[in-house]
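Example 3.2
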Amino acid sequence: MRYKKGGSVTLNENLSALLTGITITDVIQAFAATIGIIISLIALWQSKKSIKLTEKSIREANRPVIAMYLEYTQVLNTPKEYLVIKNFGNTLATIDSIEMDTKIQIIEDGEIFSQSIPFSLAPNQSFSTILRINIFGPEEEERIINVNVSYHDSIQQYSDTFKLNQNLVKDMRFSKSNPSKKSTVQQILSQTTEEILRKNL
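Structure, written as tokens:
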């Protein structure tokens, strides 16, 4: 095949002439340049990946961490059970919803936190409400309560489910009693101090 009518140079001849002018040095330089470009692209990809991992680590380290759990007080002779929601994270959390599969007997409509949502919890801030006034009362029964909490910060939405086992009280021992008329102020203060210490264990 010729480029022009009457021309005498074919495409193969052009390629042959071009390749004839390429030296080994040219090939090595072209190969080295290609390898350099590939290495640069790999380094750029790794750097981008590293930045994303760092950003994710920082975000995870500073995200809010909401937990719900049961807490007990044993002042005097009536142990009480509380439901606690706390932010163990490092940033503010806004609670969007709290859904329980069990109705709370001491609340009129049985719905927990129904009047307060949405609300915010600062880092290490907690909010609690009583679930059972006397955990060993004859009308009380132990249940497993499933609670789903949805919340968010300024960046992301989160959702966690907690299994609250009220049977925990069966493995707990309570020794508090009402102070008698003979109890001294020191004894009453001692009982109160013991409860404060227990709560901080």
